[in-house]
Write a structure and sequence with these properties.
The complex is a heterodimer. Chain A is an all-beta fold. Chain A contains no helices and 11 strands. Chain B has no helices and 11 strands. The chains are: A mainly beta, B mainly beta. Chains A and B meet through strand 5, strand 9 and strand 10 of A and strand 5 and strand 10 of B.
């Protein structure tokens, strides 16, 4: 079983729509959760941390479900500039640092 | 004021050569990493150093040797380069314990011909 699993997409979404994607993780002892964004030929950048109670940052909402071992990212009122690959990142369950999913490719269409 | 900087940005070399990639962070972080992102975009940790001490050494060929002269620097030396080493190598740093968010450098695109 893969440690961090995401649907690779691509998700083609019209501008202004709401889009959501999930990520599942296998290590139940995981303690830290993040969403990173990676633009083409660029480095990954932290989008937001994910907290147990769920958290929101502008148009972005992240949620954690420990029982089912998944985290989600919701993007409202999507913009063309939201087009990127979104990486689910899980860590803190051992000495191995952060584990990255393969990413979900999102394309916002005008 | 680049937080995590790595050089060179592009590296094209022939099989069998030895090359180095340098990384420096000015964030005052305790932990630095090397990640490899292959053609399928999978980002995988290679090494991690905390205060100059090696704490993660994943299953990586021993042709790859990290060196940390101080906690702000983590260099990666690669001997006898092979075609399969072609990838983007990212340096990163984090503050505090494992599991803290990472700050990445802008990557080194290595092409072995």
């Amino acid at each position: 079983r893969k440690e961090v699993e995401q649907d690779p997409g691509p998700f083609n979404v019209p501008e202004g729509a709401t889009v959501a994607f999930n990520c599942t993780y296998s290590n139940s002892a995981s303690q830290s959760f993040f969403w990173y964004r990676q633009d083409c030929r660029k480095e990954p950048k932290l989008l937001m941390s994910v907290y147990s109670s769920g958290n929101e940052d502008g148009r972005f909402t992240a949620q954690l479900n420990r029982a089912s071992q998944y985290i989600s990212l919701l993007i409202r009122d999507s913009k063309l500039s939201d087009s990127a690959t979104y990486l689910c990142v899980v860590g803190g369950g051992g000495a191995d640092g952060l584990t990255f999913g393969k990413g979900t490719h999102l394309i916002i269409q005008p | 004021d680049t937080a995590v900087s790595q050089t060179p940005k592009y590296l094209v070399t022939q099989m069998g050569n030895d090359k180095s990639i340098k990384c420096e962070q000015n964030l005052g972080h305790d932990t630095m990493y090397w990640y490899k992102q292959d053609s399928k975009k999978f980002l995988k940790i290679m090494f991690s150093y905390n205060n100059k001490e090696l704490i993660i050494n994943e299953t990586v060929p021993n042709r790859f040797s990290p060196k940390s002269p101080d906690k702000a620097h983590l260099n990666l030396h690669i001997n006898s380069l092979e075609l399969g080493d072609s990838a983007v190598y990212f340096c990163a740093s984090s503050q505090g314990k494992m599991g803290s968010p990472l700050h990445f450098g802008n990557g080194t695109r290595l092409t072995v011909t």
